[in-house]
Design goal:
The complex is a heterodimer of chains A (about 500) and B (about 170).
Chain A: E1 4-7, H1 11-24, E2 27-33, H2 40-44, E3 47-52, H3 63-73, E4 77-79, H4 89-97, E5 101-102, H5 107-114, H6 116-125, H7 141-151, E6 155-163, E7 166-171, H8 174-192, E8 197-201, E9 207-215, E10 221-233, E11 236-242, H9 249-265, E12 270-278, E13 284-290, H10 297-304, H11 308-316, E14 333-340, E15 342-343, E16 349-350, E17 353-355, E18 358-359, E19 366-370, E20 376-378, E21 385-393, H12 396-409, E22 411-412, H13 419-427, H14 429-432, H15 440-443, H16 446-460, H17 462-481
Parallel strand pairs in A: 1-2, 1-4, 2-3, 4-5
Antiparallel strand pairs in A: 6-7, 6-8, 9-10, 9-12, 10-11, 11-14, 12-13, 14-21, 15-16, 17-20, 18-22, 19-21
Helix pairs in contact in A: 4-5, 7-8, 12-13, 13-16
Chain B: E1 2-5, E2 11-21, E3 24-29, E4 32-42, E5 45-50, E6 53-62, E7 66-71, E8 74-80, H1 84-91, H2 98-102, E9 103-105, E10 110-115, E11 122-123, E12 128-134, E13 137-142, E14 147-152, E15 159-160, E16 165-169
Antiparallel strand pairs in B: 1-2, 1-8, 2-3, 3-4, 4-5, 5-6, 6-7, 7-8, 9-16, 10-12, 10-15, 11-14, 12-13, 14-16
Classes of the chains: A alpha+beta (about 500), B mainly beta (about 170).
């Protein structure tokens, strides 16, 4: 039985895992870099160990150092979260060698999922359709160009070691392909120290629909419904929801069966996600298996009633999944907004720095997973996800309006956030009608609409803000006239 | 005093016209009068009821002419008591001095991973001057105009803050 878990991660996901461990009476071990000594996960864990410098390569990716902490602290299992070491099969092998349970798939299965080409051929054998593309890694930019011309532009350049939207470029001609090849290589080397690139046909007006699945060590496989994650920027998800507005009962069951076949085909254990592109003609094409707990898992928790981290721990303990496919019933509708520290108007450029004040939304069926607290800092060393705001409703409309109310309540001082953009999106008719696609933001000019909405919001607040400004101005005037009373804690001293 | 809200064209005149005591005031914005009750206030912010509605404001950075206020979670910049035409001109970049037109500034914080030009090179608007890495993304800093690179103000692996000058382009 797992009694002490090291969480090889930081931020909101480290906190998410700690929360379930606490509820189950399992001890937790946090690790932290120079940048994170004052972070929430350090404060919430049973124990916390410093593992190195701020740069991920010198801390959260440092396998030897993390192993040293696991051995020293008497850890019997490790939860990798997402990102960092979560899909690194070498790390899984290292844990195996040291008799530490890795909460996730085996090294062999992870290697197979991570090798997009081997995975693709396993899927074809299991009768799971995939997207046209290069038969293997491309040798260089020349090779990529040749394949791109065979399958036709637009094509996607994908780093095998990417994930989470990094290391991906969509290119529409030979020149863009050559520029893109260089930057994907650079990003991949910066993130994981190596690079290998695939070329794939880019399908237009696609939806990104993925399935949560679970497979135990006894070979039982279930899918826990789909999530639609079509609203993206730079191929990175912004808003997710379940159920998908275009997946009906029949489709859910049919594609769900292929998901279970896919999990069986790669000998998967623990929780994973099978990602699909859904073309405009209704076809589902398998893209990849994410061999980890996903960022957006809370929406599945809302509609299934499950604690997915608990399910991960149960499976890692060798237990059988305690329910059958037919026991799972989808209840209601859930939406997640990823609250990122970024400036929408600067092409989503990162926005970092101290956060002096935060108000976190709450209420019935409102969940916020976040590392923010008043006085924390958003670091430039790690990714921009500050919080995940999730709402549930008995109807889609209820979850949507609940999300809008929660977004209005969410206040983060000091950094730019994606909150205003989400309000514009959730208020749009296209979103309300479920007209989603991965190019949603561009297709419906959401950034321009955001500009309009912000202007309107300022107009609505103009009287109130002027009142605040008038009081402030009068205060300074009265202070200047009365400069001998040098009280900074003045109160209502207006004449 | 006169006020101007950024991004809203019209300007406003506002003042306190009466102190009713017990933290109640009457203020006037343009031609309309409003009742205002202060609930609590200090130099960082104010909570008040304007007519029948509660509001909470934070006073962030202040200068004599510009106030940065977050009202009910909405950040708004207000200019006060100045010659608005000048303010508008400055904000649109029209009155910027020769120096600030030279300067190519980084809009984001990050680490310099590569520099694509040398001093003396000719560049066109949109050419990549250097590449920054921030939050695991690579972001190109592009020239804001056609010209010649006069000086490069950063080195590879150096860290730059938002607003730092990356290069001067003549």
């Amino acid at each position: 039985m797992i009694e002490k878990v090291l969480i090889a991660n930081r931020g909101e996901i480290a906190l998410r895992v700690i929360r379930t461990c606490k509820a189950l009476g399992i001890k937790t071990v946090a690790v932290y870099s120079d940048e994170d000594y004052n972070s929430m996960h350090v404060k919430q864990a049973t124990e916390a160990y410093h593992i190195g410098e701020a740069a991920p390569a010198k801390s959260y990716l440092n396998q030897e150092k993390i192993l040293e902490v696991m051995l020293k602290s008497g850890t019997d299992a490790v939860h990798p979260g997402y990102g960092f070491l979560s899909e690194n099969d070498e790390f899984v092998s290292l844990c195996d060698k040291n008799k530490i349970t890795f909460i996730g798939p085996t090294a062999e299965s992870m290697d197979l999922c991570g090798d997009k080409m081997k995975c693709k051929s396993a899927m074809l054998k299991a009768d799971v359709p995939t997207v046209p593309g290069s038969p293997g890694l491309v040798k260089d930019a020349d090779d990529a160009e040749k394949i791109a011309n065979e399958i036709g532009y637009p094509v996607m350049l994908k780093s095998v070691y990417g994930g989470g939207g990094r290391g991906i470029r969509i290119v529409t001609n030979d020149k863009e392909l050559r520029d893109g090849f260089e930057s994907v290589t650079g990003e991949s080397i910066a993130a994981v120290g190596k690079s290998a690139i695939l070329v794939e046909k880019y399908l237009e007006k696609t939806r990104h629909i993925e399935y949560q699945f679970a497979r135990d060590t006894h070979g039982n496989t279930v899918h826990i419904f789909e999530r639609e994650c079509s609203i993206q920027r730079r191929n990175q998800k912004l808003i997710e929801q379940t159920p998908s507005p275009i997946v009906d009962e029949e489709t859910r069951a049919r594609v769900g069966e292929s998901v279970c076949r896919a999990a069986d085909a790669v000998g998967y254990t623990n929780l994973g996600t099978a990602e699909f592109l859904r073309a405009d003609n209704g076809e589902f094409y398998f893209i990849e298996i994410n061999a980890r707990l996903q960022v957006e898992h809370p929406i599945t928790e809302f509609v299934s009633g499950l604690d997915l981290v608990k399910l991960q721990l149960d499976i890692a303990n060798g237990e059988a999944i305690p329910f059958k496919q037919s026991d799972l019933k989808m209840n209601g509708y859930a939406i997640e907004c990823r609250i990122n520290a970024e400036d929408t108007f600067l092409d989503f450029a990162p926005s970092t720095g101290p956060v002096p004040d935060v108000t976190i939304p709450a209420g019935p069926s409102v969940r916020c997973d976040t590392y923010l607290y008043p006085g924390c800092t958003v670091s430039p060393f790690y990714d921009s996800l500050m919080a995940k705001l999730v709402t549930w409703g008995q109807t889609f409309e209820e979850s949507r309006t609940r999300m809008l109310a929660a977004l209005n309540d969410f206040y983060i001082q000091g950094v730019e956030t994606s909150i205003p953009l989400y309000k514009t999106i959730l208020n749009s008719d296209e979103y309300k009608n479920g007209d989603l696609s991965t190019d949603f933001l561009k297709r419906y000019d959401m950034i321009d609409r955001l500009t309009e909405d912000l202007k309107k919001e300022k107009e609505d607040k103009s009287e109130a803000v002027l009142a605040a400004a008038i009081i402030h101005s009068e205060y300074f005037k009265s202070r200047a006239q009365n400069s001998t009373t040098n009280n900074t804690n003045w109160k209502y001293k207006l004449d | 005093m006169d006020y101007k809200i950024q991004d809203i064209e019209k300007s406003f005149e506002g003042k306190i016209i009466e102190n009713l005591g017990n933290n109640d005031y009457v203020i006037k914005i343009n031609d309309s009068e409003h009742k205002l009750k202060i609930i609590t206030m200090n130099s960082n912010g104010i909570e008040f009821i304007l007519d029948q509605k509660y509001h909470k404001a934070k006073y962030l950075e202040q200068s004599t002419s510009e106030m940065n206020i977050v009202i009910d979670n909405v950040p708004i910049i207000i200019n006060r008591n100045t010659h608005f035409d000048k303010v508008v001109y400055k904000n649109s970049g029209g009155a910027s001095s020769g120096n600030s037109q030279l300067a190519l500034k980084s809009q984001i914080p990050g680490k310099v991973v590569s520099i694509s030009v040398s001093e003396g090179d000719s560049v066109k608007k949109g050419d990549v001057v250097c590449t920054l890495e921030s939050m695991k993304m690579q972001v190109a800093i592009k020239s804001h105009k056609d010209g010649v690179v006069k000086t490069i103000k950063v080195k590879e692996t150096a860290t730059v803050a938002k607003g730092d000058v990356v290069a001067e382009i003549e």
